[in-house]
Queue: 2 jobs
Job 1
Amino acid sequence: MIAVELHKLFRRPRTWTTIAVLNALPLLVAVLLQLTDLAPRPGEGPPFLSAVLTNGTLFPLAALAIVLPLFLPIAVAVVAGDSVAGEAQAGTLRYLLARPAGRTRLLVAKLVSVFAFVLVTVVVVAAVGYVVGTTLFEAQPIAGTSVSGSTLTPEELTGRTVLAIGYVTVSMLGVAAFALFFSTFTDSPLGATLGALAVLVTSSLLFTLDAASPIAPYLPTRYWLAFVDLFRDPILWRDVVRGLALQGVYVGVLLTAAWANFTTKDITS
Amino acid sequence: MTAVIVTRGLVKRFGRVRAVDGIDLDVRAGDVYGFLGANGSGKTTTVRMLLGLVLPTAGEVELLGRRMPRAARSVLPRVGALIEGPAHHGHLSGRANLSLLDASGPGGSWRTRRRRIDAVLEQVGLAGVGRRPVAAYSLGMRQRLGLAGALLRRPELLVLDEPTNGLDPQGIAEIRELLLELNRQGTTVFLSSHLLAEIEQMATRVGVLDRGRLVLQDRLATLTAPTGATVVRTPEPDRVRAALDGRVTAVDGERVVVKGDDPAEVNALLVGAGVPVIGLAPERPTLEEVVLAAARAAGDRVEVRERGR
C-alpha cells in the first residue's frame, strides 16, 4: 500500500514540477548575487545569504531559508491537501476503499508518501543549493564560518547541515499534518490546501502582533527559523528543542483527529 | 440456496432525511438481481452501505455470509464493484490503473497480476488499448475499464451500479452478454439501475426501491406471470364484446382484454362468431407496469409541503 502511494506520488509529473519550481527561486537569487555582487548586509535578508558570497558551501542553508517562509509550505500543503481529498474528487477513493485498502492503512500510506515528498523536496533544495553555491561562488571546502563568527570544521558543517535538513523536514510535517487533517474533511483538495495555508498565514501574522504574545510560543510557525541556531557556536538548542516538541504535539493531535474522522465518515464522493 | 447479500432493517439517515428506510434485501447465489428505483430512491446509498463506504444508521449487512463492514478485509476482495461510474487516474494508462488498484488491497497476488490484467482487458474489449493515458479514453472505454477493475480477482459477487452507462447499443449488448456468461459460470450479479429494459432482459430476481423502502422483491418470472386473461387484437372490438358477452374487461383501440387464460379457446369462439382476429396472446404485465404500480412517484420530484399542518 505504501509502495502504491509512493508510486502514485513520484510517477506524477506535477510532483516533479513542484520540486523544480521550488528550486527556481534560490537559483534566481544566486544568479542575481553572482552578477551584482551585492550581498545583503549581515543580519539583513534571509539568513546565511550575507555569507554566501565568501563561502558558497553555505548556500544550501541560504536556499532553505529562502523557500522556508512561503514556497516550501505551499508545496507541502498542496501535496498533503491533495492526498485524501484529491482521491475523493477524482472518485478513486471509493474504489480504493471498496478494494478494500482499509481506511487506517490508506491514511498511513498517504502520510508516509507526504513525508517522503517533504524529505525529498528539502534534500533536493539543499543539494541543488550546494551545486549552485559551489559553482557560482567561491567555495571554502576546508572550513565554514558559524553565525557566531567562529570557525567550523567541514565535518561540523556537514553534520549541522544534516541536522538543519532534519529540522526543516519536521517543521514541514506540521504543515502536512494540517493539510492532511483538512483533507479528510472535504472532497476539495484546493479547500484542504487553502485551509492549511490559512492556518500558517494566521500564525505568521499573530507572531508579529504584540497583543498575541501570550499565545506566540504555541503558534505553529513560531520556531521555523530556529534551524539557524544550529550554526551558532556552541549550538543553541533551546528553540530547536521547543520547535521539535511543538511540531510533535501538532502532528500527533492533528493526525489522531484526521484518523478519527476518516475511519468513521461516510464516503459519498 | 445460499444467501449472498442479506440486509436486515437497513436504515441510513442523513440529517432528517431517511435515505434508506429499513430495507431487507435477499440476494441468493446465482442470481442476477435487478435493483430498481428512481433517481434519489436510495439505490446508491444502499450499494455504498453494502460495500462499507457508508455506515448504516441502523440495521445490518451480510455479504457472502460475513458481517459488513467488520469483515470488509476478508469479504471485499471476493467482490467486484462498479460504484456510480468509473474513476481512474487520468495521467496513467488503463493497465497502470488496474495494477495500482490491485496492489492496494489484499487478495490480488502480484505474481498473477499481469496475466489477470491481460485477461480482463481482453474480456471487456480493451485488449488493444496500449499505453494511452486514461484521460484520452472515451466514456465508453472508461466504463469498460471500470468493469475490468471489478473483474480483476474473479469475484464471486459483482455489485454494479449502472454498468452500461455511456456505452453505445453494441457495447451494451456486448457487456450484457459478458455479464450473463459470468453468471452462467457461477458469479452472482447485483445490478443497480433505473433502466427497466436492461433489468428486464437480464435479471432473474428484482427488488424495487421507492423513497428508501423496498416495495417489491420477487422473481422476475413471478412478477410478470400471466394474469389469467387473454389479449385480443382486432379491428372490430365491438363485435368481440357482442360475441363474448360479459368476459371483456377492457377495450383500448384495437386491444381487447378478455377473461380466460387459454388463447386457443378464446380464438375458437371469436372465429366461430366471424370476428376478424389479428393477434392473440395471454396477458402478462410488463416489468414497467409492475414497477409503476409498486413505486408511485418519481424520487427526485420535490413536492410543496402543505402548510398549517
Job 2
Amino acid sequence: MLKKLLKQNIKTKGLQIKPGLKAASLDIAQISDINSLVYPLEDAKLNTYIPTVSIGDKVKKGQVIAEAENAHGLKILAALDGVIETIDEVKAPLPQKITPALIIKPDNKKYWFDDVFFNIDVKLDEYPKEMIFEKIVQANIQGLGGGLFLSAKKILGSNIEHIVLNAVECEPILNCDEAVLYNYLAEVLAGGIFLKNAAKAKTITIVLKENKKDLINHISHFVKNNEQFNGINLATVPDLYPSGAEKEILKHVFNTKLTSAQHATDHGFLMQNVMTCVSIFRAVTCDLPQLERVFSVFGKNIESPTNLVAPIGVTVEDILAFLKIDSNKVDSIRIGGLMMGEDIVKGTSRKHSALLKSSNGIILNTYEDKEVSECINCGECVKACPVDLVPNKMFKAAQADDFNSSYLKNLSECMNCNLCNYVCPSNIDLVGMFKYAKQQKAMIQEEQKRAEYINNLTQKKIERTKFEKQEKERIKQERKLARQKRLEEKQKKEQETNETTA
Amino acid sequence: MIYLFLLILTIAILLLIADKFLKTSENELVTKINDILPQTQCGQCDYPGCKPYAEAVANGEAEINKCQPGGERVIKELAELLGREVLDPAKEKKTPQVVVIDEDKCIGCTKCIQVCPPDCIIGAVKKMHTVVEKDCTGCELCIEVCPVDCIDIVQLKQSFKYKKVKVNID
C-alpha cells in the first residue's frame, strides 16, 4: 500500500502547453550565406572567456579563439576560416545584458555542412575507449540540450551504468531533436554506443515523449533491424513540460530522485542530448569539432517554419535573410525555447544577436508586453511547480531579502523552468527574482567563507607579531646577560692583573 | 499548603541552577557578534579590529551600524541578535577594491607591512614590497602610513548581478 502511494507520488508533474504555433518541418535545411559570426565572451552561466587571438588575426575552422577564465576546459572554437574583425559589445540574450563578443568575418560567404553518415560495415566496438575520450575532449563537445556541460567530464564520472539519450524536447513546438532523430538516427545511436564504451556503461536508453508514436515506431524498427544497435532500449515520458529535464526523466523513467546537489552521474546515469551524440559520432569517426548545431525557427505569422543546421555564432540577420523573412516585419526575436528562452524585444538593438551553442530555437514575434500586478496568492504557481516549491512565498521572502527564510531553503531545487511565470495571472517574473536570490545567497556564502579565511590570516599575523616581540625580548635579554658576563669577566681579569702587579 | 511551598522551593532552586549554568556569558556574546562581523580587520569602525568592535558592541558602547565592509547584512543580523533597532549604515559600502604598491617608488620601510591586518604585504627592510592581491581586503590602512605615497587603490571588476524584480504596488 505504502509502496503504491510512493509510486504515485513520484509521477511527473507539469503542464501541457499548446501555444498554437506551427511546428517546423522535419527536414533539416542548411544555411547558405554567412556574413559574420559572433561569439559572446560570457555565457549563460556567467563564465567569462579570455580571447586567445587578437583583432586582425586569421583564424582557421576549429581553432580555439577563447578560453574560459575560471571553469577549466571550456573553450570557444571558430566555426569557419576567417579574420577576427572586431571585439564589439553585444546584447547577449542569456541573461539579458551587454557583453563583449569576438566577431569573425568569414573568408568565404558560402557555407556548407559536412555531412558524415554512419557506415554499417564499421564496427563501433572496435574504437578503443581512450581514443573516444581523447577525441571528445579535442572536439570541445558540450551538451547541446542547453546545459553545456562538457561531455568529457560526464564520462569521467565514476561507475556509470546507464547511458540515457534524451530526445524528450519538452519545450513546446520545438522539434529540432525530432528532426535530428529522423535524419541522423544511426549517427545518434552510434554516438550513444561510443559513450557507452567510453564510460564502460551497461545499457543505453533513448527517452522520448509518449505522443510521438511515429518516431517511436521508426526507432524501434531501426534498432531491431540493425545488429549493432540491438540492445538499445526505448522509454517514454508524458507529453508535459518540463518532463525532459534531467531530473524529471530520472524520476519518471528510472524511479531515481536526485537532490539539488546531486548530478545524474552520481547515481550512475550519463544523460546526453541526441544532438550531442551526433557531435560525438562526428568527432570520433572523422575528427570534426563541435561547430554546428540544429535548431528550429518558427513563430507567429511565419509561413514556413524550418529546422536549420548552422554554425554556432551565426547572426539572426543571416538566418532571417536565408529564410527570406523581412527583418523589419519581425517584432521580437526569442533565442532559446518558448519557455526558457529570452526575448530581444522590438526597439532594442539586434546588432550581432546570434545563435548560441545552447540555443535550440529562434522564435519570432511571440513577445507580449504584459502588465504586472501584485501577487493575489492564488496558488497557481504552487500547483504548477514541478519540483514542489512554493514560488509565491519564496518570491516574498526574496523581496524582503530574507535569504535565511525557510521558504528559500530549497531554492537550489528550482531549475528556472518558468512554469510559475507562465501560470501567474499577475504576470510576475518569479524566476527572475529566484535568479537574483540564488546569486545573493551564493554571494553571502562566499562572503562568509572569505571572512573565515581573512580571519585566519589575521590571527596568524597577531600570533606572528607576538612571537616576534617575544623573540626580540629574548634576544635583548640574552645580549644583556652576555654583556654583564663580559663586564664581570673583564672586572675579574682587571682584578687579577691588579693583584699580580701588586 | 506545604506541597505548594515545596514546589515553589524546588522551582526556585532549579531556576537558580539554570541561571548559573545556562547564562550566556559576556564572552559568548562577543564571539557571537564577532562571528557576524566580516573579519576584514580594517579598523574603519574606529576600533583596532573586529574583535574590539565586537566587545564595544557587546558592552553597549558602540552602535551596530559602524561596520563598513559588512553593510546592511551585518546591521540586520546584529539587530536581530541584540534586539536593537535596524539602523542605516554609518558610512556607505565601498565597491570591492584592492591596493597596489608602485614598486619603483617603494623605499622598503616596512611600515605598511606592520599595519596590514591580513598580513598580505610581503617585503623586507630596504627591499621592495608588494601586495598579494588575492588576500587584500582593500581596507586602506596601509595608504596613510606610507611615507612616499606609493600605494594606490584599484577597483575590482564587478561581475554581473541580477536585479531584484519589482512589482508595482499602488
